[in-house]
Write a sequence for this structure.
């Protein structure tokens, strides 16, 4: 019997013995000699392709030099700092590098509380900020994450934007709110993006009532949706910006970015064992350097066109397609079996990401157009077959 490996993929979906041994750009190769087009991309982290030679070279050099120093500074972490800040407006600075997204979110809670001297936090249902207690309490449904001073507001499409803003206004007017956390694209749920007007109004409400706007662009940042950060298209500037995923090419790294108006005090952003780790820093330096040599925004636009052209028609089956750039979500209607459809997609050589009744497509920016077109064909066929089977069984 094969040894257990970690997987949060639905267990009835993976083919027998499916275990990856190698990746090359947008492709994954399994132990049994099969090849898959990868639209999961390390949960959106491997944005410039698996084993990208330029990135691999820098990380190998770092492996030969220095791995970790714990609390004392390294040259490579300083380089990573500079590389990240080159993507930020001069009004903002990188305050700290951590390892995971949830760690950045946890410490952003601390910063918001320390800067404002208040305790209250607002999050929106369904936004993904991570699975630790505070991060989960801010958005992701988790009955165990019961913490005081956290307020949940509905997100699209549960309520109209006007109604949501009314709720936000009422809470902010109490003067007890330290920060409002928002994922600007519902990346682990339905792929919804709030309107520019909604985000602008939320931002000005925060300003009016002395609360900080915290945008979690861990998923959407570094061109995943096209622009460097999605908020560039939403007309707001966050007080705190959270970054991660694509900037590390799969190495565990995240960051908390702060408006320079807020001084950093030691107790706000404490160290942790892997914070600023030299190997992760090398991955950031190499990834962001590589990003600058490419027209990533242009290739992401081409990805968006291919996805829309290939999958928009699935609306006929009641399957909604939402997202932007290289981050897409297919929402299956009740009655369609996610497991059946995803199993069929895998059998035909494509790996996708799944959550609840959603199929996510997170191609690398480096995916060849022919592979993306093929992957979309496979997905469309699987959805049509799944819908036909459901109709025959009378479940839709
Ligand atoms: C927007 C966003 N924020 C935070 C996180 C949490 O990151 P991590 O899983 O590294 O804790 C995720 C994870 O998918 C995410 O998508």
């Amino acid at each position: 019997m094969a040894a257990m490996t970690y997987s949060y993929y639905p267990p009835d979906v993976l083919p027998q013995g499916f275990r990856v041994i190698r990746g090359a750009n947008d492709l994954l190769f399994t132990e049994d000699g099969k090849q898959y087009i990868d639209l999961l991309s390390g949960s959106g982290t491997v944005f410039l392709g698996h084993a990208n030679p330029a990135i691999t070279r820098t990380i190998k050099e770092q492996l030969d030099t220095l791995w970790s120093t714990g609390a004392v500074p390294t040259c490579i972490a300083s380089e990573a700092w500079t590389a990240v800040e080159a993507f930020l407006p001069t009004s903002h600075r990188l305050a700290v590098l951590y390892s995971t997204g949830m760690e950045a979110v946890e410490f952003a809670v601390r910063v918001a509380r320390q800067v404002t001297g208040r305790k209250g936090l607002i999050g929106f249902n369904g936004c993904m900020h991570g699975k630790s207690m505070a991060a989960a309490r801010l958005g992701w449904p988790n009955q165990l994450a019961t913490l005081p001073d956290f307020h949940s507001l509905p997100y699209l499409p549960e309520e109209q934007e006007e109604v949501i803003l009314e709720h936000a206004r009422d809470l902010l007017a109490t003067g007890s709110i330290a920060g409002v956390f928002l994922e600007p694209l519902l990346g682990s749920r339905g792929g919804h993006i709030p309107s520019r007007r909604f985000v602008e109004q939320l931002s000005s409400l925060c300003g009016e009532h002395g609360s900080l706007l915290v945008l979690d662009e861990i998923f959407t940042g570094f061109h995943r949706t096209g622009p460097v950060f999605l908020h560039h298209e939403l007309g707001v500037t966050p007080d705190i910006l959270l970054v991660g995923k694509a900037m590390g090419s799969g190495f565990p790294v995240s960051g908390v970015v702060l408006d320079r108006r807020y001084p950093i005090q030691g107790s706000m952003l404490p160290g942790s064992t892997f914070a600023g780790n030299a190997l992760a820093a090398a991955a950031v330096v190499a990834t962001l350097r590589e990003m600058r040599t490419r027209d990533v925004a242009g290739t992401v636009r081409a990805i968006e066109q291919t996805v829309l052209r290939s999958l928009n028609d699935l609306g006929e089956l009641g399957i909604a397609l939402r997202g932007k750039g290289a981050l897409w979500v297919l929402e299956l209607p009740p009655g369609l079996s996610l497991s059946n459809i995803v199993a069929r997609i895998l059998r035909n050589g494509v790996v996708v990401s799944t959550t609840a009744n959603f199929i996510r497509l997170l191609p690398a920016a480096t995916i060849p157009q022919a592979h993306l077109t093929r992957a979309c064909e496979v997905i469309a066929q699987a959805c049509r077959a799944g819908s036909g089977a459901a109709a025959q069984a009378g479940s839709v």
Notes: The chain has eleven helices and 15 strands.
